[in-house]
Amino acid sequence: MKPIRLFALGLLAAAPLALAACGDEAAPGEVAEGEALPKIAAPAGTSWKDTVTVTPEGGYMIGNPDAPLKLVEYASHTCGACANFSATGKPVLADKYIPSGVVSFELRNLVRDPIDLAIATLVRCGAKESMLPLSDQAWLALNDFFAAAEANQSLYQAAGNQPVEQRFVTIAQAAGLIDFFAARGLSADQARTCLADAKAVQAIADASTAQAEELKITATPTFILNGKKLEVNQWPQLEPLLQRAGAR
């Protein structure tokens, strides 16, 4: 499939859309070897798998907010390597590591392009508990979004000349995002309202730019464990590092 040409977005003047190179390795980091950490019980009547926290950085964390091992992923919604991690790593994290209370997982967005930003906006549009599941479902449909945008390229390109309040609504329509999220509980009206909120969209882009610059993140996915960037970008290499740090 031919790449979709991007257009200049006035709304994103401060946020370069090609900031992340999908699939590149993250910056070096070390993980200290430790003994197996004891499990930490969730409060009565709750489970860590169902505990979602919005962090000060604008990320969405699942698990024990005070977990001794805090794993952060900087990801793009239009990154194939991120989609692969979503399919291979997150189910194991959710079933094996997060329920122990020892590991938390936080997803933060590194915005690469307008479709990426539209998806990042829509997964935040409903309840906070929906953000991570919707993100995973969107990664599964990534090729469908690209195909739709290619088929509707004239509509996609037209968005560049629209007011910012309409721009991402049109992008989402071109990529089939409105219907996709409507089928998963986010009404078309809700979606359009969120996409038309220029301040909220800008905030996601600004957070992406500021954090990427501060942490020198140039690739997706990039993983950070307890504040240290890791050299790996896929689950088969990441899981041993979690275990080395004490997760079992």
Overview of the molecule:
The protein is of the alpha/beta class. The protein has a single domain (20-29, 56-244), classed as Glutaredoxin. 42% of the residues lie in helices and 12% in strands. The strands form two sheets. A six-stranded mixed beta sheet has the order 2-3-5-4-7-8, covered by helices on one side. Strands 1-6 form a two-stranded parallel ribbon. The longest helix is centred in the C-terminal third of the chain and has 18 residues, at 198-215. The protein is elongated, with a radius of gyration of 18 Å.
Question: What's this model, at a glance?
Answer:
By secondary structure, the protein is an alpha/beta fold. It has helices at 80-88, 90-97, 114-122, 131-140, 142-151, 153-158, 164-174, 177-182, 188-195, 198-215, 235-244; strands at residues 21-22, 52-54, 60-62, 69-75, 103-109, 219-220, 222-225, 228-229. The protein contains 11 helices and 8 strands.
Strand line-up of the largest beta sheet: 2-3-5-4-7-8
Helix content: 40-55%
Q: In CATH's first tier, which class applies?
A: Alpha Beta
Mean pLDDT, to the nearest integer, reads 90
Record field, number of beta strands: 8
| Strand-pairing-aware structural class | alpha/beta
As for the CATH topology, it is Glutaredoxin
Strand content: 5-15%
Number of helices: 11
Number of domain modules = 1
List unreliable stretches of 5+ residues.
Answer: 1-20, 24-28
> What do we call the CATH homologous superfamily?
Glutaredoxin
Q: Based on the structure given, which CATH architecture is correct?
A: 3-Layer(aba) Sandwich
What is the CA-CA span between the terminal residues? 42 Å
Largest sheet: 6 strands, mixed
* Tertiary shape: elongated
Order of helices and strands: EEEEHHEHHHHHHHHEEEH
Tell me the radius of gyration: 18 Å
